[in-house]
Design brief:
383 residues, 8-stranded parallel beta barrel, Lyase, Ornithine Decarboxylase, Chain A, domain 1, alpha/beta, 8-stranded mixed β-sheet, binds ligand LLP, 29% helix, TIM Barrel
Length: 383
């Protein structure tokens, strides 16, 4: 499903803004549904990727649950209509206020990451006279071969508890009166494009399940996190991620016990391809060696290139020129990292042209900031 930009509609909007292809989002959600049908699989959308209300509602209508990492995300999910029993809450630093909010919302479970956190949840649940369902985030020490800022499953990361500590943590947790241990949680990183690390993860989970059984603890939930990557280079050729191959790995490699559910927390793979950042060209500037396209969007609207050296495909969606020129495409912010692309081959571009920065539906709008007192980008939808 190629994204066709409705130029007339987009030309009337104040740039920069995010444009969402809602048909593509729906097609992606349908694909997930058909790949998981008949399996004991529950997909929780990772809200951190994009908490735009229309996007959240569309995902809710498709029947998915959510993975939240803050009280704000729990509240936004409840507002968007998600059933509280489809909400899980992760994060290394949940505050008392956030834990209370989640307890009051009666969420499905907390993904706990440390003993002090467990103690806090136990105490706060006790004060309310309730029992909190908890899964433990375990650090499986699997290298996801992705950017170092978005790898999370190695022993040196701050996330989760290490595999060796699990027996101790489980014995502490099972002795707590207001904690009910329901599962284990894993997440090895993001933008994982070779599927091999997921297979390694399954092996670790299988090993760990045997150990946990020896301790007499029954697990209902195996949460394998998210991380499935997308094609940033060819968004039109691969608009929908390889969900079938991805889910097949878990079907073939995970040894589930009777009654167990597998939970997934996919963010990027669900929303990245449906979003583009639309920006207009403020100036085309000829330097001595380079030509620059200066856009009205900057790193404040899409920070991924500046923060992770990420590249989003850039298209001039209004030029009709068949001649191409090599440009550096840069934003207006006074930071050298405010650059969307170097040596981009684009059709002859002029002031006022519209550019689309593709595959920006995940970690785009939600990571925008007001640095330089700029306005936050708004959103436009295909329908
Ligand atoms: N579950 C947990 C516990 C996570 O930490 C994350 C992402 C996800 C699920 C969803 O991962 P996904 O399916 O989206 O890969 N801002 C970065 C990505 C940070 C990802 C953080 N954790 C970026 O723009 O690439």
């Amino acid at each position: 499903m190629t994204t066709i930009f409705p130029i007339e509609k987009l030309s009337q909007e104040q740039t920069p803004f995010y444009y969402y292809n809602m048909e593509l989002l729906e097609a992606t959600l349908n694909e997930i549904k058909s790949c998981t049908e008949g399996m004991p699989y529950k997909v929780h959308y990772a809200v951190k990727a994009n908490a735009n209300e229309r996007i959240l509602r569309t995902i809710q209508e498709a029947g998915l649950g959510v993975d939240c990492v803050s009280g704000g995300e729990v509240a936004a999910s409840v507002n968007a209509g998600f059933d509280s029993k489809k909400i899980v809450f992760a994060g290394v630093g949940k505050t008392d206020r956030e834990i209370n909010l989640a307890l009051d919302a009666d969420i499905l479970c907390f993904n706990a990451e440390s003993i002090p956190e467990l103690e806090a949840i136990n105490a706060l649940a006790q004060a309310k006279g309730i029992v909190a369902d908890v899964a433990f985030r375990v650090n499986p020490n699997v290298d996801a071969h992705t950017h170092k800022y978005i790898t999370t499953g190695l022993s040196e990361n701050k996330f989760g508890i290490n595999m060796e500590q699990l027996p101790e943590v489980l014995s502490i947790a099972t002795a707590m009166k207001n904690i009910n241990v329901v599962g284990l949680h894993f997440h090895i990183g993001s933008q994982i494009t070779e599927l091999d690390p997921f297979e390694r993860l399954c092996e670790k989970v299988n090993e760990l399940q045997c150990e946990v059984e020896k301790l007499g603890v029954k697990l209902k939930i195996i949460n394998v996190g998210g991380g499935l990557g997308i094609d940033y280079v060819n968004p039109d050729e691969n608009p929908i991620a390889s969900f079938k191959e991805y889910f097949d790995i878990f079907k073939n490699s995970l040894k589930l016990r009777e009654g167990q559910e597998v939970h997934f927390e996919l963010g990027r793979a669900i929303v990245a391809q449906c979003g583009s950042l639309i920006t207009s060209v403020t100036y085309v500037k000829k330097g001595t060696v380079k030509q620059f396209i200066i856009t009205d969007a900057g790193m404040t609207d899409l920070i991924r290139p500046a923060l992770y050296q990420a590249h989003h495909k850039i298209e001039n969606i209004t030029s009709s020129s068949s001649e191409t020129v090599v440009y550096d495409v840069v934003g207006p912010i006074c930071e050298s990292s405010d650059c969307f692309g170097e040596n981009e081959i684009l059709p002859v571009t002029k002031r006022g042209d519209l550019l689309a920065l593709r595959s920006a539906g995940a970690y785009g709008e939600i990571m925008a900031s007001q640095y330089n007192l700029r306005k936050l980008p708004h959103a436009v939808y295909s329908k």
